[in-house]
Specification:
19 strands, alpha/beta, six-stranded mixed beta sheet, binds magnesium ion, binds adenosine-5'-diphosphate
Length: 413
């Protein structure tokens, strides 16, 4: 019998329990989710942006605390064991790979891969042997002396894989590992992960791309904090499995279908009780289909803003109700320990007479487009942190992590 590595029973996550006081309603990022990870599994987790994918993997790997329910790691209830033991479990058995490879810029590739071993006081000879072996397998043995900025995105992500597996973890957890890679490199990364899975490593992979998910053995589809669909690969080949996945996921990725639908609902205050991650779009600009699927777009034309909410309803907001606009830069930490990194996004508040509509702009280029569009339409934008100026100062540095890190330093001055 295969052993159970992680077992989650009815776990829920509420980010801000005080919301009950502030707005009268708790918002669940996860609602009573059951999840079992067995040795040798390769599970992909899909779902629209904001559906709880990151929250789910952070909770089951104890990076974040669950609000309700029970979680067992390697058969032991996390409530019953000390935090220090949980930390040891995580360091020993789990390897993480994130969308931004989170390599340390000042260290060579060799040292980046060595970091987890140095933390565990492994001898230099042993480190050298281990690094030679994994880097050969991942075909990065020639770049060991380089710094991350000298390497391509695909190479950096392979280095991140090397770092994640150097201690031979039992489970590899990946959150959109191919989110910043082109398709050739994405498939290369997935081939590497599949090979590892064949050698017995258990994998949990978050992705929004059905082709990437088709490498897994089981796809779980999250919607609004609940797992609403599970597709098993069984004996299907990869292409058939891919089609099955598309069947489930395309139900809500077809933004155009919704936009073409003439029906829409009027805005009401209740809708904004829920946090909304919206990818902003301008009507006559070309957009990448992948981005359209990943985020909910906010479309601004001369009279209306339109977006699609989590229930796939088209919400139309008349621009005439907007009295002012404020933008603010928000930082959040991702990752753990020395791999932690800042992630930034921009809150865009549309101030109306009796409410404030808050959108999170996930993409700086488009935030600037939206700001310019609104300025042309005659709106003043309150931008206390000079986000716009900073953006113009670093136009070529636009690459999510890099640009934002510059911005942050600039802001601190
Ligand atoms: P996904 O990874 O599927 O895009 P997340 O797990 O990041 O989704 O988010 C699920 C929900 O929880 C969203 O509504 C999001 O806005 C909210 N959320 C995520 N992180 C936080 C946080 N640190 N504080 C408050 N709400 C959060
Ligand atoms: Mg996420």
């Amino acid at each position: 019998m295969k052993s159970i590595l992680i077992e989650a029973n009815h776990i829920s996550k509420i980010y801000d329990p005080n919301i009950l006081w502030k707005r009268g309603k708790n918002e669940y990022a996860l609602r009573s989710v059951d999840f079992i990870l067995e040795e040798g599994d390769f599970i992909s987790v899909m779902g629209p942006s904001g559906s709880g994918k990151t929250t789910l993997i952070n909770c089951i790997t104890t990076l974040d605390k669950i609000s309700k329910g029970h979680l067992k790691l390697f058969g032991r209830d996390t409530l019953a064991i000390k935090d220090t033991i949980i930390d040891d479990f995580r360091n020993k058995y789990l390897g993480f790979i994130f969308q931004n490879h989170n390599l340390i810029p000042s260290l060579s590739i060799y040292d980046n891969i060595a970091v987890p071993l140095l933390l565990n006081e492994v001898s230099n000879d042993e480190i050298d042997n281990k690094i030679k072996k994994v880097t050969k397998d991942l075909n990065i043995e020639k770049i060991l002396d380089k710094k991350p900025y000298m390497c391509s995105g695909g190479e950096c992500q392979r280095v991140a894989i090397a770092r994640a597996i150097i201690q031979q973890p039992k489970i590899i957890v990946c959150d959109e590992p191919t989110g910043n890679l082109d398709s050739k490199n994405s498939h290369e990364v997935l081939r590497i992960l599949s090979d590892m899975n064949k050698k017995g490593i258990t994998i949990v992979l978050v992705t929004h791309d059905p082709l990437i998910a088709s490498y897994s053995k089981k796809m779980m589809y999250l919607y609004d904090g609940s797992i609403i669909n599970v597709v098993n690969r069984n004996s299907n080949n990869q292409v058939d499995f891919y089609h099955k996945i598309v069947n489930v996921t395309s139900k809500d990725s077809d933004i155009q279908r919704v936009l073409n639908n003439e029906e829409y609902i009027e805005l009401n205050k209740e809708m904004f009780n829920k946090r909304t991650d919206v990818y902003m779009m301008i009507n006559d600009r070309e957009y990448d289909d992948k981005l359209k699927e990943q985020y909910r777009p906010l479309i601004i034309d001369d009279e209306y803003m339109i977006y699609i909410n989590v229930y796939q309803e088209k919400v139309k907001i008349s621009l005439s109700i907007i009295k002012g606009i404020k933008i603010d830069l928000i930082s959040k930490t991702t990752g753990i320990g020395i791999f932690s990194d800042y992630l930034f996004y921009v809150n865009v508040d549309f101030v109306c007479d009796d409410m404030v509509l808050r959108f999170k702009a996930m993409n700086q280029d488009d935030m600037i487009d939206v700001i310019e569009k609104l300025e042309i339409l005659g709106y003043d934008i309150e931008d206390k942190k000079n986000i716009k100026d900073i953006f113009y100062k670093y136009p070529l540095a636009y690459e999510r992590g890099k640009y934002l890190r510059n911005t942050y330093k600039e802001l601190l001055k």
